[in-house]
Each structure stands twice: as structure tokens, then as C-alpha cells.
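So, could you explain the following?
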Amino acid sequence: MIGDLKKLSLYDLAILYFKEVLREYQRSFKIVEPPPEIRKRNALSFIVFIEETGERWGCLIKDWKRPIGSDTIIKFKRIVDNLGLTAGVIIGNRISELALDKAKRYGLLAITRGEIISYLYSRGVDKRLEITNEENQS
């Protein structure tokens, strides 16, 4: 069942999260692939381009069993700065306290799988997905 958010990949959850957040602010966006040398190193998953404002948010998704550490935050901050991105969002299953503090200090948004799922459930996204899925099967 597509309405079960817990079964979605972290990448799919991230896309749903951005759709919902930006929909609330009446913003449209495009997902842009990062430069090949950055993508090859898994240093950036994608860039969210917000059409109305021209902002570019770098997004790094780490679907690891272990928590994201502060070293990953430091490397990601360098990528965001080097590419001249407006903001950086790092998403993981778990994020260490030290990494959360470092992300906050650098002005990066660090979000866990649980926070995204909780946010999406609170907005009723799971119910909208079920309706869309039923319509597509008809």
C-alpha cells in the first residue's frame, strides 16, 4: 500500500517532504541533478530549485544504519558553499547530537526519517497518497 509512508525509501520521503513544505508556501520546484563529479562522490543527492525565488537547496540523503556524524556535516557544508547554494538539507535515518549541533551552527537543516514521516502524517499526506493510488488503479 503506497499510503504506508514507513515503507518508502528515504529518497521518496524527501521528495514528498519537499512537495508538502513548498506546497504550503505556494512554491513550485524542480529536482536538479548535481554536477557529475559531486554526484559520483555521493556528496550531494540532488538540488531543489525553487522556481518563484530562484533559490537552490542542496540535499544530501544518507540512508545508513548508523547515525550521520559531524564529519559528514562538515563535508556537506563545503559542498554547499563551493556550489553557491542557498541552503543545505541533510536527511538521514539517524543523526548524532554532535552532528545536529554542527548543522545548526552552519545554518544547515538536518532532518531524520522519523521527523519527515511524522510531518507527513500530520499533514494527511498518507491519506492523499491512498486516494491517488486508488484512482490510478481504476
Remarks:
- Confidence is low (pLDDT under 50) at residues 132-138.
